[in-house]
């Protein structure tokens, strides 16, 4: 398969936590922020998202068009995001607890790794950020000088309609003998491919009440637990690590 290489699996882990980045670990979606403030704007973005949810267009082509509407040098985009994107209020504590308890936390994102790394460094500190695992798309600078005055997204899975098919980071774990319990957290259309492969799926409800992923799961009959932030994620992951089944946790949190 063409595209960016898939990292090694955490084969010995008993639990693996995979999470969307934008709007799940962060308070708002950084790509939406770029499009709304520097690109073609929120109205068209929301209309395009609906087309993906209804199957009229695919995420890959919609997202590239959104990014291409942002005609600002890439380094400036990084600065804008560093200034405006904040962490979910419970994430730092959640991440620290997972690290102390040997649970890999893997960020799987349809955004671009260099922007995620830039924001992570600001929010988690340079050293912590450097140890965090990020599976995302990349960026290429398309200006002749290679400075990023113009740029384009490089998809991890260019042949997939998702651009980055997040299910490919989760499905391989399912065939490991005595496989780990799999958690996934997400909020939006970029998470549709991964949603049905976790043992315990967390769907984030945004402060404005927007629940794209939860709405999709309800329509498709995919079990999930709605969360406002990672404080609840930490509490429920602790319950599973303590011995509860993921089915029990899902049933108790409807
Ligand atoms: Mg998201």
From TrEMBL:
Name of protein: Phosphoserine phosphatase
UniProt xrefs under NCBIfam families? DKMTPPase-SF, HAD-SF-IB
The alphabetical list of record keywords is:
Hydrolase
Fetch the PANTHER family from UniProt: PHOSPHORIC MONOESTER HYDROLASE, UPF0655 PROTEIN YCR015C
Coiled-coil region(s) at which residues? none
Record bears the keyword Hydrolase = yes
Q: Does the keyword Hydrolase apply?
A: yes
Q: Which organism is it from?
A: Cutaneotrichosporon cavernicola
Write out the GO MF terms. phosphatase activity
Kindly name one Pfam family recorded for this protein.
HAD
| Database matches in InterPro entries | HAD-like_hydrolase_phosphatase (IPR050849), HAD-like_sf (IPR036412), HAD_hydro_PyrdxlP_Pase-like (IPR006384), HAD_sf (IPR023214)
């Amino acid at each position: 398969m063409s595209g960016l290489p898939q990292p090694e699996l955490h084969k010995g882990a008993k639990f693996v936590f995979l999470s969307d980045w934008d709007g799940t670990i962060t308070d708002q979606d950084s790509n939406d922020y770029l499009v709304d403030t520097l690109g073609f704007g929120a109205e068209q973005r929301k209309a395009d998202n609906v087309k993906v949810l209804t199957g009229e267009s695919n995420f890959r082509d919609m997202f590239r068009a959104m990014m291409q509407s942002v005609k600002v040098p890439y380094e400036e985009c990084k600065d804008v995001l560093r200034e405006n994107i904040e962490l979910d209020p419970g994430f730092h504590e959640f991440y620290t607890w997972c690290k102390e308890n040997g649970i890999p936390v893997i960020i799987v994102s349809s955004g671009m790794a260099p922007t995620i790394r830039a924001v992570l460094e600001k929010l988690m500190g340079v050293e912590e950020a450097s140890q965090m695992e990020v599976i995302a798309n990349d960026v290429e600078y398309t200006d002749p000088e290679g400075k990023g005055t113009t740029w384009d997204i490089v998809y991890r899975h260019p042949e997939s309609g998702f651009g980055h098919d997040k299910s490919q980071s989760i499905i391989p774990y399912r065939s490991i003998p005595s496989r780990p319990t799999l958690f996934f957290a997400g909020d939006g259309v970029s998470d549709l491919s991964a949603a049905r492969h976790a043992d315990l799926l967390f769907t984030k409800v945004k402060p404005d009440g927007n629940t794209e992923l939860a709405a999709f799961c309800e329509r498709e009959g995919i079990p999930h637990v709605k969360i406002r932030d990672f404080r609840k994620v930490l509490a429920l992951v602790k319950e599973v690590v303590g011995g509860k089944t993921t089915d029990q946790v899902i049933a108790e949190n409807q």
